[in-house]
Design brief:
With 545 residues, this protein is of the alpha+beta class. It has three domains: 1-29 and 283-428, no CATH class; 31-210, no CATH class; 223-267 and 444-545, no CATH class. It contains twelve helices and ten strands. The strands form two sheets. Strands 1, 2, 3, 5 and 6 form a five-stranded antiparallel sheet that branches. Strands 4, 7, 8, 9 and 10 form a five-stranded mixed sheet that branches. Strand 8 (151-164) and strand 9 form a beta hairpin. The chain binds 2-acetamido-2-deoxy-beta-D-glucopyranose.
């Protein structure tokens, strides 16, 4: 009967999931336009062409915005927020397939201060970036003449938008209308929009940006290579030290065994052998511990699969598709969580396995949903349009209860039955051995911080260069890079992104906290798995009396 129940549960789960995925695909696909539907031109940043890391808000230069103030849909995705993209509405009135002749949308009253700002920007070759329907557009602010005395501002943005069916697939911007900057004049800013039928497929619309000459790939290949070498070097170093020490220890232990019982100094063991009665002692909170390890294993498999899928399929092209893939993979890998969490809990002698299963299954979803709920709350307070739709929330809850939980149950039962025996190579003493006084740098808190430095060092450059989300590097030893990435993220936020306001702040910090915690749990689990295999190995090879 249990088997039948499981089978029904799984098939029910898969069916629900398919339904929900279809639903989600609908919710996530914003990209189709009806004729005359509003198309929003977002202004992003402005900054010197030769230093692309240095960016300012577009409206930090005294540009003026169009007269349109309201927009029907605000879009911001997690990816954008993580990138620190801070979009502001341009105020231009653009409608799908609706041609606009050259129209003046606003005028700049050029006083001395404004002129100086523009001249400074032109001298430093400032360029700006905009977005239309997620497609980036770049334009130059202005131009100086040969002897560098007169400065001109480009005032006319000529937009040519290519569409294929009811989607936007291509955008070109031409800057025209050079106007000399003379103090105390008025400068009219204008735009025009032309719509062209295009053969570019929607899936391929980002391809023109992936042209290697377009982005300079050199830096991040170098840094990836760099951290790769660093990881190899560290692994080599650590394993060499461990091997030498172990060989020496084994030699000494076996020499001792050959000695007479009389000669041997009984009870005076040394080195790692002396803790053999304690190494396999269950943790003090087996329930939480095994749930964390199970979740960590699941996150690890999810990141692996999503990275592979993202490499095989171009997930970056469609907004939200990465997220929905991640949710799907997360639900599908629930048995991994149940298996590792359940078997570890059984090994540690835990009895309340149902409670463990619930905690393990809902730890991560609760964390993510809790944060999302909190941010949603603020979103509703600030811009109602940014809130997560109710349908999505219900969908996520359904996935938790009807897919994740049953699959987790399957995993837990398998884990408890297949590898739930505490088959440790040596017995655990009844009385714990007292832990001697430690130096300050051996305290857990200090170790946690120090342990994160190396893995953090190797992901630092990627995080900086690749803006946190394309090539995320999940490589780590053990320890808590999560904590590190958390503090890094804070610095990053404060120094690089220049985001202001409660909403931006909580949005960014909330999701980055989730990200850092997940990274920490994952690395902790990988570290624990590695260490426990190692410890088990070295104690199997030594004779304990
Ligand atoms: C944009 O420019 C490219 C290259 O000049 C051209 O192939 C493409 O058709 C243009 N697209 C639109 C919509 O005008």
């Amino acid at each position: 009967p249990l088997f039948v129940l499981m089978k029904t549960g799984v098939s029910l789960g898969v069916m629900t999931l398919l339904q929900l995925l279809k639903q989600m695909k609908k919710i996530f696909s914003f990209f189709q336009y009806k004729d005359k539907e509003e198309v929003v031109l977002w202004m992003n940043t402005v900054g010197p062409y030769h230093n692309r890391q240095e960016t300012y808000k577009y409206f930090s230069l005294p540009f003026c915005a169009g007269s349109k103030k309201t927009i029907s849909h605000y879009h911001e995705t997690l990816g954008e927020a993580l990138q620190g993209v801070e979009l502001e509405f341009s105020g231009l009135d653009i409608k799908f397939k609706d041609e606009v002749m050259q129209t003046t949308y606003c005028e700049i009253d050029l006083d001395k201060a404004k002129r100086d700002a523009f001249v400074y920007a032109i001298k430093n070759h400032y360029w700006y970036q905009m977005y239309i329907d997620d497609l980036p557009i770049w334009g130059i602010v202005g131009e100086a003449d040969e002897n560098g005395e007169d400065h001109y501002l480009w005032t006319y943005k000529k937009l040519e938008i290519g569409f294929n069916g009811n989607r936007i697939v291509d955008v070109n911007l031409t800057s025209e209308g050079k106007v000399r900057l003379i103090p105390n004049t008025r400068i009219g800013m204008s735009y025009s929009v032309k719509w062209k039928r295009s053969d570019v497929k929607f899936e391929d619309r980002f391809d023109k940006y992936l042209d290697p000459s377009f982005f300079q790939h050199r830096i991040h290949w170098f840094s990836i290579f760099n951290s790769f070498m660093m990881v190899i070097f560290l692994v080599g170093l650590v394993s060499m030290i461990l091997m030498r020490t172990l060989r020496k220890d084994y030699a000494r232990y076996s020499k001792e065994e050959e000695m007479d019982d009389m000669d041997r100094d009984l009870g005076d063991e040394y080195g790692w052998k002396q803790v053999h009665g304690d190494v396999f002692r269950p943790s003090s909170h087996p329930l939480i511990f095994s749930s964390l390890i199970g979740s960590g294993c699941q996150i690890f498999s999810v990141s692996l699969i999503v990275i592979i899928v993202a490499m095989v399929e171009d997930l970056y092209t469609e907004r939200g598709s990465m997220l929905s893939t991640a949710i799907f993979v997360y639900a599908a890998t629930s048995p991994v969580n149940g298996y590792f969490g359940g078997s570890l809990y059984a090994k540690q002698g835990g009895r309340r396995w149902i409670k463990q299963m619930f905690i393990g299954a809902f730890m991560i979803p609760a964390m993510v949903c809790g944060t999302a709920f909190f941010i949603n709350f603020i979103a509703i307070y600030y811009h109602a349009s940014r809130a997560i739709p109710f349908g999505t929330m219900v969908a996520v809850c359904c996935i938790c209860f009807f897919v994740i939980l049953p699959l987790n149950l399957v995993g837990t039962i398998l884990g408890r039955n297949l590898s739930g025996q505490p088959n440790f190579p040596c017995r655990v003493n009844a009385v714990p051995r007292p832990i001697p006084e430690k130096k300050w740098f051996m305290e857990p808190a200090v170790i946690v911080c120090l342990g994160g430095i190396l893995p953090f060092g190797s992901i630092f450059i990627e995080m900086y260069v690749l803006h946190l989300h394309v090539f995320l590097d999940y490589r780590c030893g053990c320890g808590f890079p999560g904590l590190r990435s958390c503090s890094y993220v804070s610095c990053f936020f404060l120094w690089c992104f220049r985001m202001y306001g409660l909403f931006q702040t909580s949005f960014y910090f909330g999701y980055m906290a989730v990200f850092s915690t997940a990274l920490g749990i994952m690395c902790g689990a990988v570290g624990y798995m590695g260490t426990s295999a190692f410890v088990r190995k070295i104690y199997t090879n030594v004779k304990i009396d």
